[in-house]
Write a structure and sequence with these properties.
- The chain contains ten helices and six strands.
- With 221 residues, it is of the alpha/beta class.
- The radius of gyration is 22 Å and the shape is globular.
- The protein starts with a strand and ends with a helix.
Length: 221
């Protein structure tokens, strides 16, 4: 969750014990995680005088709407969006430095280090973890059994995935051994690039200014 510079932070507001009267804060979230965050807000609102008002915005519209709101001095108190956009907002002076607040939390050391790292821009922290995410590869044990593979032995490398997939595809009847949403930027980022990183390769230089895609690791992947 990011704290917008033009308004009071949702985090600081909810953590404050010195408010003279109940306050309402606005929180923008993406629809993909809206149900979870609305549920959390409902739980909080049921037992606190302060209220969190959640507004759900489609992922494609979040960045332009948030940018326009900041520019028009009408930003929400907080926003939950993909951390990949944080440097852009921070560089444009649209976020507020909450480093001291975050470091002062009694559970600060237990926060997801990757989230905190990505929420840090030029040594200053502008956000905290909202919802963790993970990418997995699942396999169908029934198909493994039908193909003569050990259903209790998941493939441990891309080579094994390919080999097992070929055996499953050989069953015929439009049975496929592997499924991957390749025509999707997010899927490529979350499910394809990790294989390159596991091979100690990357698609960008350390400073992020030049492409390093012409590598044996990428071609092999």
């Amino acid at each position: 969750m990011l704290r917008l510079k033009t308004t009071i932070t949702a985090l600081a507001l909810l953590a404050s014990s010195s408010l003279a009267s109940a306050e309402e804060i606005t929180l923008w979230v993406r629809t993909s995680s809206g149900a979870v965050l609305q549920g959390l807000a409902d739980k909080y609102n049921a037992s606190h005088a302060d209220k969190v008002n959640v507004t759900q915005i489609t992922a494609e519209q979040m960045v332009p709407k948030l940018g326009a709101a900041i520019a028009g001095s009408a930003a929400p108190d907080g926003a939950v969006l993909d951390l990949i956009y944080l440097p852009t907002f921070a560089a444009a002076d649209g976020l507020e430095d909450i480093s001291d607040f975050v470091k002062g939390l009694p559970y600060s050391s237990a926060m997801s280090p990757s989230h905190i790292r990505l929420a840090t821009y030029e040594g200053k922290i502008y956000g905290v973890p909202a919802l963790p995410d993970a990418s997995i590869i699942a396999y169908n044990t029934d198909l493994f059994t039908k193909a003569g593979l050990d259903p209790n032995k998941a493939p441990a490398s891309m080579e094994e995935i390919a080999a097992d997939a070929k055996k499953i595809a050989a069953l015929g009847n439009e049975t496929y051994g592997f499924y991957f949403v390749a025509n999707s930027g997010s899927w490529l980022i979350y499910d394809f690039l990790p294989h390159l990183w596991a091979a100690n390769a990357d698609v960008l230089s350390d400073d992020g200014r030049s492409a390093t895609v012409d590598t044996p690791a990428l071609r092999e992947t």
